[in-house]
Amino acid sequence: MMNDITPIYQNEYGIAFKWKPEKPSKTNKVQIIFRDTGLLLTKKEIHYFSKCIHDTLQSGNGNLCNDCQIKGECRSLLLNSPAHQVSFAVSYTEALKIKDLIDGTLFKIQLDAYFNDIGIS
Questions:
Q1: From CA 22, how far away is CA 88, in angstroms rounded?
Q2: Domain parsing of the chain, residue ranges
Q3: Contact at 8 Å (CB) between 31 and 5?
Q4: Of 65, 70, 85, 90, which is least packed with CB atoms within 10 Å of its CB?
Q5: Residue 82: beta bridge partners?
Q6: Which of 76, 75, 88, 80 is nearest to 37 (CA)?
Q7: What does the alpha-carbon distance between residue 56 and residue 42 come to, in Å, rounded to a whole number?
Q8: How far is CA 7 from the centre of its chain?
Q9: Which domain of life is it from (predicted)?
């Protein structure tokens, strides 16, 4: 399978990659995998997911229980996804790791687009 993909970004929590052109129906989307979930998203959907993560972290930070024994590890946050029917129950720590995965993916996509625009590949 590793020969079928072009990695974009990964961290200890997940990976983002593009399918190589031999799979034409998937080439304009990015596959993002974390936990037991795979999302096949357009760049616009990745930007939307980034906003969802930001909103969840902003609203969720104050919702951590003061007397919680597992600080930051309880899956008490509801993270919306680009698939409006799907939300993820995540911990604050997981949300931070997903944020890194999505932010790193967007950065790498934008960096690659910049280099392609100036003729460096």
A1: 31
A2: 2-117
A3: yes
A4: 85
A5: none
A6: 88
A7: 21
A8: 14
A9: Bacteria
From residue 9, how far is each of 3, 5, 65, 86 by CA, in Å?
16, 12, 33, 23
pLDDT category, 19, cuts 50, 70, 90? confident
Element (H, E) at 98: helix 92-117
Q: Which two tokens stand for residue 59?
A: 């609203």
Paired sense of beta strands 30-34 and 5-10, if any = unpaired
3-state SS of 41-80 is ECHHHHHHHHHHHHHHHHHHHHHCCCCCCCCCCCCCEEEE
Q: Give 33-79 pLDDT, tens digit per residue.
A: 999 999 999 999 999 999 999 999 998 655 556 566 666 578 888 99
Q: In Å, what is the CA distance from 38 to each residue of 7, 15, 28, 32, 84?
A: 14, 10, 16, 6, 15
Residue 32: alpha-carbon gap to chain centroid? 6
The answer on pLDDT for 113 being more than 60 is: yes
pLDDT tens for 81-110 read 999 999 999 988 899 999 999 999 999 999
